[in-house]
Amino acid sequence: QVQLIESGGGLVQAGDSLRLSCAASGRNFSNYLMGWFRQAPGKERESVAASAWHDRTNYADSVKGRFTISRDNAKSTLYLQMNSLKPEDTAVYYCATGPKWVPPTLESDKYDSWGQGTQVTVSS
Fold first, then answer.
1. DSSP conformation class of 105
2. Phi-psi region of 62 (alpha: psi -120 to 50; beta: other; left: phi over 0)
3. Which of 43, 73, 97, 113 is most buried, taking the most CB atoms under 10 A from its CB?
4. On the CB side of 36, how many CA atoms lie within 13 Å of its CA?
5. Pick from 64, 80, 89: which is nearest to 18 by CA?
6. Could you read off the pLDDT of 77-110 as tens digits, one per residue?
7. How far is CA 105 from CA 26, 27, 33, 58, 65, in A?
């Protein structure tokens, strides 16, 4: 069974940077679809970024140019580097994983395991 544990969230000011981590266990990490999603209070969950085999990535328009998704397959860890943070980035951020050998989709129904989430709060 796959376990995903996020860390790195916190309270920062607008313009600051933050790096989230997601440690995966129970699955050979390499070549699996991995993604970051977020959910703000009172809003639906939205996609943030995805990473797939061959280091292919995909980003939501709202974070392009500010966020970078990366992975360390040797450590079975997914990262999300968040720069130039805005108050509207405030949300609980979730890590998720899906099947192998698929494109870096942002569609949440393609993911089958989810972490518990980590809170990111950006003050203005």
1. -
2. alpha
3. 97
4. 34
5. 80
6. 999 999 999 999 999 999 999 999 999 999 999 9
7. 22, 19, 8, 7, 18
Closest CA to 37 of 100, 122, 115: 115
Lowest-confidence pick of 5-19, 21-35, 48-62, 89-103: 21-35
For residue 121, how far is the Cα from the chain centroid? Answer: 15
Residue 28 predicted with pLDDT over 80: no
CA 85, CA 97: separation in Å to the nearest integer?
24
